[in-house]
Amino acid sequence: MSIPHREVPHVPYVPTPDKVVKKMLEIAKVGKEDVVYDLGCGDGRIIISAVADFNAKKAVGVDLSDERLKEAEQNALARGVRDKIVLKKNNFLDEDVSEATVVTLFLLTNANDLLKPKFEKELKPGTRVVSHEFEMRGWKPKEVVKVEDGNMHHLVYLYVIGEHT
Ligand SMILES: C[S@@+](CC[C@H](N)C(=O)[O-])C[C@H]1O[C@@H](n2cnc3c(N)ncnc32)[C@H](O)[C@@H]1O
């Protein structure tokens, strides 16, 4: 189902620190069987780490910004993983995520709210949803991890479809 674009909240670009990227992929137990989707992929750091550091089979980054997608492409080329990455210019609310075994997010709570019914419809049981900083309101996390990075504290929420209610 396509959700009208007027419902899309404004989500600014703020990159996830590398230490948090690693923790997100670690608690999701990303491995060689996984297809990882980052909705609002920015410069591609999460999808690139998923394939380069965690050996995911494939990773898909979705973003609306041409500039970010270009950066993601250049970064994937520089890490030698361009062939394992798919980059898509799309509104994440319109992206079919049924292929994902792991979905990563660093959006806003109201954007997560809009994604919840889509995830419940499209994602298979066992799919992990990992969100940096913003919870999935009303869902039961499997794990909440605090990551300290310098003087900053970050929260990472892990949900597993089928165990989230
Ligand atoms: C907070 S940044 C997170 C970037 C990256 N996931 C990370 O953690 O480093 C949010 C990203 O979402 C993108 N974005 C915002 N609204 C979007 C939408 N409706 N569809 C696709 N991407 C969107 C922005 O361009 C931005 O790159």
TrEMBL record:
InterPro entries assigned: FAM173A/B, Lysine_N-MTase, Methyltransf_25, SAM-dependent_MTases_sf
Matches recorded under Pfam families: Methyltransf_25 (PF13649)
GO cellular component term of the entry, any: ribosome
GO terms, biological process: methylation
GO molecular function annotations of the record: protein-lysine N-methyltransferase activity
Cited CDD domains: AdoMet_MTases
Keyword annotations from UniProtKB, A to Z: Methyltransferase, Ribonucleoprotein, Ribosomal protein, S-adenosyl-L-methionine, Transferase
Keyword Ribonucleoprotein listed: yes
Occurrences of domain Methyltransferase (ranges): 36-105
Protein name (Swiss-Prot/TrEMBL): Ribosomal protein L11 methyltransferase (PrmA)
Species of provenance: Metallosphaera yellowstonensis MK1
